[in-house]
Amino acid sequence: MNNEELKQTILSILPSAVFEENTQFLTIQIPADQIHDFAKKIKESETISFDYLFCLTGIDYGDSLGVIYHLRSTKYRHEIVVKIKTSDRETPAVDTVCDIYKTAEFHEREIFDLFGIKFNHHPDLRRILLDESWEGHPLRKDYIDEVNIVER
Amino acid sequence: MDLNIYDFTSFTKWIDTSLHEMMSPFWVTACEMTIIGVAILAFYAVVGLYLVYAERKICGFMQNRVGPNRVGPFGFFQTIADLIKLLIKELVIIKNADKFLFNIAPFIIIITSFLAIAAIPFAKGLHAMDFNIGVLYVMAVSSMGVIGILLAGWSSNNKYSLIGAMRSGAQIVSYELSVGLSLITMVILAGSMQLSAIVDGQAHGWFIFKGHIPAFIAFIIFIIAGTAETNRGPFDLAEAESELTAGFHTEYSGIKFAFFFLAEYMNMFIIASIAATVFWGGWQPLWISGWDSFNHVMAWIPPFIWYISKTAVVIFIMMWFKWTFPRLRIDQLLTLEWKYLLPINLFNVLLMAFIVLKGWHF
Amino acid sequence: MTDLIQEIEQQEYIINMGPQHPSTHGVLRLVLSLKGEIVKNVEPHCGYIHRGIEKMCEKLTYQQIIHLTDRLDYLSAHINNAAVCLLVEKALGIEVPERVKYIRTIIDELTRIASHQLWWCSFGMDLGGLTCFFYGLRDREHILDIFEETTGGRLIQSYYTPGGLMKDIHPNFQKRVKDFIKYFRKILPEYDQLLTGNVIMQARSKGIGKLSLEDAISFGATGPSGRGSGFACDVRKLHPYHLYDKVNFKEILYQEGDTFARYKVRMDEMWESMSIIEQLIDNIPEGDFTAKMKPIIKLPEGEYYQRVEAARGEFGVYILSKGDKYPYRVKFRSPNFSNLSILNTIVPGQKIADLVAIGGSLDYVIPDIDR
After folding, report:
1. With contact defined as beta carbons under 8 Å apart, do B270 and B138 qualify?
2. What pTM was computed for the model?
């Protein structure tokens, strides 16, 4: 399926999707609370069938935090990037997709560990790369660590 | 003194008579027992040491490397250096371990393998304990070693050791059946359990040739079961380094570890000796009927050399197994014994009995 | 009394295959709960070698990031380097010379063979066939010698750079690679004789650790671990880079999804890699070893994603650039991280010895998990 048809199908699933221009993959921005339903629909849809989540990234835009999902369909071989943003930096919370894509279980733990974004209904949300007793979320842009980080 | 290397009976008789001239019968017995004890101890120690060296060299060559070659010519004194290192190591005392059992376990293993070595005929006349139930005695004594392993695992107060000891216990108890049955096959052929009688009966042909098919099957089963008995080769999951650190002897250090280590090699030596004695003729030379000059040349080689060479070949085969095959899992190991080896063994015993009754052996 | 017995039976025996263990291939802690010999639950605890590479990359130039990618999956060092180089070259619209493409493909395939050799020898060792370890390493030395002569490093090379290579290949390179291929073609059947056909090894790996196709896609288990379950995820076929669209090679797929299938995939991949190298080694064109690049690389603003087929799966690099000489966010999609997550699905119900075999067949490199 080429990008035009994909656009149409996605708009029919979620009319509030916003498409970005000039990107490597077809990129859409969706509201953060829609992610679980949207992911379920695009995975189960027969016409687009996005079943392979190959990259799950957390990102700190400075004023807001975001999560980026890179998805691919093994059947139709098309790809899409789904972005969500949340401007709540104190207690960011997003729905989990690990019941839809099993790979998300570990990746969401990593995002929680390094960015502090909580995932609702995640079966086991705790730090994965850092120690349980670590304070702070290192990959955020405002993370200060006098001891371990050497600033130029 | 008449040291006839083909027949040590005259030598041992000479020692006996000279001792009788010197002291009362009680002291003679005591003295003889001491001599035999010291001789076996020395033999045990030397053979154990050099078996370790042989293993390291053989496994080195099989793995495309040289093995020990620094300490002494060709690394000959490597094991002695290792022994000195083990002797001076700290004996780590485990806090919550059961002290009495922890200390006694290595001794049990060493003592049982000593007892078994004592019953093996090394050459004509060089046979420390010649029971008329020799085969049964060796089997019984070597199976007491499993007590030592279980005690070691239990008293270490360590989950890994316990798992290793349990596995090992199950394995040894199962494989004893196969070892016993394959030896019984040969006892049927020999007609006696006395080890010297078995060896004497092979003067005109080794049992593995005399008993053809059932003897050959029994030999194969004995080698497999014997390797499993000694926790060696593809059956060494009790000490599987890549799974549970060192299994039942994880917590031992210093001389106690040396005991376990040595006992493993000496058990291998015992199994190989029994195989050589019961199947391959013990200290008898190779004898083919009709080839008199050949037999004459074979008989010129002293019996002790025959015995050592046969044992060495079997030991080499056992080492070859270890360094070639991957390890079996515990359930596969027990399946092998109970579902395959045991029925084949039982059938083999019947077959051998049938053949002996009909006289269809050589 | 019966409640006491029931309570004791339900208690789980928790064992730690701690960070230091001969068969976890690195610092990975597996907390197992056992019932007898059967594993009921595996919980991997990683992060022992977390070095904060993604955070470090935010303060490093693009040429410097390459040195860090080496240290992720150090057995596919060149392939990881290629990911970042390709990303930068595509973003800047730079066309590398043909010579560079040939050399990069050949070296990538040599890296793949070296990585699979190390996998084979440690897999054999985990199963108990200790001799396999020495044979695999003996043959890997040939490849490492070739790398050392050309790039100066055995394990970590950082030879690729955006635009091409750091230096041209050594004059001996072609001859040594050809000799190695000839030598290894004779040796690989020996590996089959020693381990593949062995009854014990097959009994310990057939039917063990089955991963279904659906699970493989859902968990994102790529590379030989996924291809053993029939997941056609070879990046070299789906999104060709370097010269993979111009050479003839098969994508190895097996359908059973057990340990033996994953084993066979890697053994067959070694044959395929050798065939790729043979097709290219005689035809390396003359030319520059690098395109003209500015000393300071600034990527245009935007997001970029580049994927390559590392020895263990799909390695991806995601870079968000704000036009600076440092990237704003770098994310490494590590294949081992996704492969690790399947452990709790395929192990429960099997024995500890099977866990070791499964872990060996999934072939983890822990620094890649922890980044």
Report:
1. yes
2. 0.87
CA distance B249 to chain C (A): 17
Q: Is residue B27 part of a domain?
A: no
Q: What is the ipTM of this complex?
A: 0.90
CA distance A96 to C218: 15
**Domain span holding position B127:** 79-358
Quick one: pLDDT at residue B315?
A: 92
Residue of A nearest to C370 (CA): A129
Cβ–Cβ below 8 Å for C134 and B330: no
Q: Contacts of residue A71 in chain C, CB cutoff 8 Å?
A: none
Looking at residue B242, what is its pLDDT?
A: 47
Please give the angle made by the CA atoms of B64, B272 and B103, to the nearest 5 degrees: 90
Taking contacts as CB-CB distances below 8 angstroms, the residues of chain C near A102 are 215, 218-219, 341, 345
Q: What is the pLDDT of residues B93-111, one digit of tens each?
A: 778 777 888 888 888 988 8
HSE-CB for C177 with a 13 A CA cutoff: 30
* Number of structural domains chain C divides into: 1
Q: What is the pLDDT of residues A49-106, one digit of tens each?
A: 888 888 889 888 888 888 999 988 888 888 889 899 888 888 888 888 888 888 888 8
What pLDDT score was predicted for residue C113?
Answer: 92
One DSSP character per residue, A94-147 reads EE--TTT-TTHHHHHHHHHHHH--EEET-TT---SSS-TT--S-TTSTT---TT
Both structure tokens of C192: 């089959």
Q: What is the CATH number of the domain that holds A21?
A: 3.30.460.80
* Cα–Cα distance, C128 to C47 (Å, whole number): 28
- A58 domain residue, yes or no: yes
Looking at the domain assignment, is residue B312 inside a domain? yes
- Distance (Å) from the C-alpha of residue A86 to the closest C-alpha of chain C? 17
CATH number of the domain to which C24 belongs: 1.10.645.10
Does B292 lie at the interface with C, CB-CB under 8 angstroms?
no
Nearest to A55 among C233, C333, C340 (CB): C333
Residue of chain A nearest C366, judged by CA positions: A129
Higher pLDDT, A118 or B22: A118
The count of domains in chain B is 1
Strands C160-161 and C164-165, by their bridges, are: antiparallel
Measured CA to CA in angstroms, residue B217 lies from B133, B202, B224, B270 at distances of 23, 18, 11, 20
Count how many Cα atoms sit within 13 Å of the Cα of residue B327 in the half-sphere of its side chain.
Answer: 25
End-to-end CA distance of chain A: 48
Mutation pick from A83, A108, A128 vs chain C, by most beta carbons of C within 10 Å, is A128
Mean per-residue pLDDT, B353-360:
86
Q: Is C303 within 8 Å of A103 when comparing Cβ atoms? A: no
Question: Does any domain span residue B62?
Answer: no
Please state, rounded to an integer, the average pLDDT across all residues of chain C: 87
What percentage of chain B reaches a pLDDT higher than 70? 96
Dig out the tokens for C21 from the structure.
């263990």
What angle (nearest 5°) sits at the alpha carbon of residue B206, between those of residues B205 and B210?
75
CB contact under 8 A, B242 and C22: yes
Q: Chains C/B: 3 or more C-beta pairs closer than 8 A? A: yes
For residue A45, is it within any domain? yes
Structural contact between residues C330 and C318, judged by C-beta atoms closer than 8 angstroms: yes
- B36 inside domain: no
Kindly list the residues from chain C whose CB atom is less than 8 angstroms away from the CB atom of residue A55.
305, 316, 318, 331, 333
